[in-house]
Amino acid sequence: MLKGKIALVTGSTSGIGLAMARAFAEKGANVVLNGSRSPDEIELARVGIERDFSVKALYLAADMSVPAQIAQMMAEAERVFGSVDVLVNNAGIQHVEPIESFPVEKWDAIIAVNLSSAFHTIRAAAPGMKARGWGRIINTASAHALVASPFKSAYVAAKHGLAGLTKTAALEFARDGITVNAIAPGYVWTPLVERQIPDTMAARNLTRDQVVNDVLLEAQPTKEFVTPEQVAALAVFLASDEAKSITGAVLSIDGGWTAH
Ligand code: NAD
């Protein structure tokens, strides 16, 4: 389905991004990985994709909070593979703290990585996609692109912003064969969620079990975590030709969270 196409997924060294990169590779795309982790773990993930799916996988280490590095990554991907056909803006970070004590540098970093990086990648990828008359841009938003939770001011603001950027880009590229959509997952069991448990315990004065059951899954009527593979399957569908009329959408995959 994606044979001969190039899929670049930011933040794809773990969690949802890695599951997406593997899912695109399974459909025949060559993939560009990005994100941080130990060099050994990254190489293991990269080689695993090449071995399992007989495609090429390239790793580019750009920091999504640095616009010049983002531009360099996009140029390098196009230089090596000739195009970026599927762009997934997935890199994301979180910080949980009340607004009054929320560190300013954390606010800046979250806005940079979770929102501004998508602006930088999209403006770099769009000319090539337009020239080829085909492109798929998929932004990993969140249920927090649609609703808020306390103590996540920067994350909620960035994800709402990402939904706005998604809609704007969809309108601008509507006649160019390029679709732009956001996926809005509820709680997915990944390192990002695991890492915020201690901060949420502190912010709300709760035990670990209380955070998992009463805070995280409290929002999710199914009482089950979404899996990275389920999110990846939605991304693969959005990249398909059958999904060409879906653009400007923010698609929930949240176990009913935003039905509340
Ligand atoms: P994760 O921590 O497993 O993955 C995040 C990825 O982003 C990693 O590869 C990490 O290296 C990368 N990253 C972080 N900062 C970066 C930077 N400055 N430059 C480049 N890469 C960077 O977390 P995840 O849960 O898989 O999150 C992936 C995306 O899904 C994020 O945008 C997150 O907001 C979103 N999301 C996650 C959940 C969830 O419950 N896990 C829910 C909704 C949305």
Automatic annotation (TrEMBL):
EC number: 1.1.1.30
Taxonomic lineage of the native organism: Bacteria, Pseudomonadati, Pseudomonadota, Alphaproteobacteria, Hyphomicrobiales
Top-rank EC class of the record's enzyme: oxidoreductase
Top-level taxonomic group: Bacteria
GO BP of this protein: monocarboxylic acid metabolic process
Entry protein name: 3-hydroxybutyrate dehydrogenase
Keyword line: Oxidoreductase
PANTHER family: 3-OXOACYL-(ACYL-CARRIER-PROTEIN) REDUCTASE (PTHR42879), 3-OXOACYL-[ACYL-CARRIER-PROTEIN] REDUCTASE FABG (PTHR42879:SF2)
InterPro entries (alphabetical): 3-OHbutyrate_DH (IPR011294), NAD(P)-bd_dom_sf (IPR036291), Sc_DH/Rdtase_CS (IPR020904), SDR (IPR050259), SDR_fam (IPR002347)
Family according to the record: Belongs to the short-chain dehydrogenases/reductases (SDR) family.
A Gene Ontology molecular function term of the record: 3-hydroxybutyrate dehydrogenase activity
Keyword Oxidoreductase belongs to the record: yes
